[in-house]
């Protein structure tokens, strides 16, 4: 199951899009549709004014995004339909696919927003949510409309059978040309966190934090073990240097190396070093 509500997004309205509901073709591949609002942007007033207008007209998408401020809002759950598309005859385009996530970017089609935008953590959160539903990073309908008079492809068969990203200009039964000539590769690349942060559910995050805590404790334990072992070896070296007997030094070195390797493998400092003189066997323990 993908993300239904994006934690980083502001809730717009009451969380219910009037007239929206379950998907007609939930077994069809998941997809995303990109729109532009054709209005102003860059301020909180513009953001909330646009949201209010969309709700008054009942043209709500799922998502409203400001490419200048990185402000992100959500009108309704991503696993239900939105209201930003016209039907293609009997095909209810808003309800096609496992999900049909619709995004209104506060920009104008005539000035592609990827030329001036400042995507940040909220845009990365948006792409994370999109990818959580298995939407592939591809544009199945091909190119986007480059101008108002450009008749970009709107194939119904592809819309019904292929998942991925679409522009409003690619949707059958619709006549808009937004989002314009945006850089589709840059759009998808901007959704990749430089730190490669991966979304985790709260219980997964808690488990990972516990695991890293245990690993850290183990690392410090090994560090202490190694320090103790180093002290033991130092003492043994001094003892051998002071001993007035005929010990086999090569055998001593081999025994110490074997003991160190064994201690590190078994995560223990209880090292058993056995050395030999030329006439007897004497166990040495630390």
User: What's the CATH H-level homologous superfamily of the largest domain?
Assistant: Peptidoglycan recognition protein-like
Number of helical elements: 6
What is the β-strand count? 8
Instruction: Round the mean pLDDT to the nearest integer and report it.
Output: 83
Low-confidence stretches: 273-286
What would the principal axes of the Cα set say about the shape?
A: elongated
The largest pleated sheet is described as: 6 strands, mixed
CATH architecture of the largest domain: 3-Layer(aba) Sandwich
> Gap between N and C termini, in Å?
56 Å
Strand content: 5-15%
Q: What fold name stands as the CATH topology of the largest domain?
A: Lysozyme-like
Radius of gyration, in angstroms, nearest whole number: 32 Å
Structural class: alpha/beta
Strand and helix order:
EEHEEEHHEHHHEE
Strand order of the largest sheet: 1-4-3-5-2-6
CATH C-level of the largest domain = Alpha Beta
The number of domains is 2
The helical percent reads 25-40%
């Amino acid at each position: 199951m993908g993300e239904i509500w994006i934690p980083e997004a502001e809730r717009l309205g009451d969380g219910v899009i009037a007239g929206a509901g379950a998907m007609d073709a939930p077994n069809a591949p998941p997809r995303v549709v990109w729109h532009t609002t054709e209005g102003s942007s860059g301020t909180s007033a513009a953001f909330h004014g646009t949201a209010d207008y969309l709700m008054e007209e009942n043209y709500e998408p799922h998502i409203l995004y400001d490419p200048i401020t990185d402000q992100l809002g959500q009108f309704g759950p991503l696993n239900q339909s939105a209201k930003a598309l016209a039907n293609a005859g009997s095909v209810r385009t808003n309800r096609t696919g496992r999900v049909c996530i619709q995004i209104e970017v506060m920009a104008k089609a005539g000035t592609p927003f990827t030329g001036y935008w400042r995507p940040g953590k909220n845009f990365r959160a948006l792409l994370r949510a999109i990818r959580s539903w298995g939407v592939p990073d591809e544009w199945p309908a091909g190119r986007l409309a480059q101008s108002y008079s450009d008749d970009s492809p709107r194939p119904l068969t592809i819309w019904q059978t292929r998942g991925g990203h679409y522009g409003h200009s690619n949707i059958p039964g619709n006549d808009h040309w937004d989002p314009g000539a945006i850089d589709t590769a840059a759009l998808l690349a901007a959704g990749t966190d430089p730190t490669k942060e991966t979304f985790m559910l709260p219980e997964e995050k808690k488990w990972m934090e516990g695991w890293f805590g245990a690993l850290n404790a183990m690392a410090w334990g090994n560090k202490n073990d190694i320090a103790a072992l180093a002290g033991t070896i130092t003492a043994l070296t001094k003892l051998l240097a002071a001993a007035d007997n005929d010990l086999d030094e090569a055998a001593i070195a081999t025994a110490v190396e074997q003991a160190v390797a064994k201690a590190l493998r078994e995560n223990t400092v209880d090292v058993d070093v056995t050395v030999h003189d030329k006439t007897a066997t004497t166990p040495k323990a630390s």
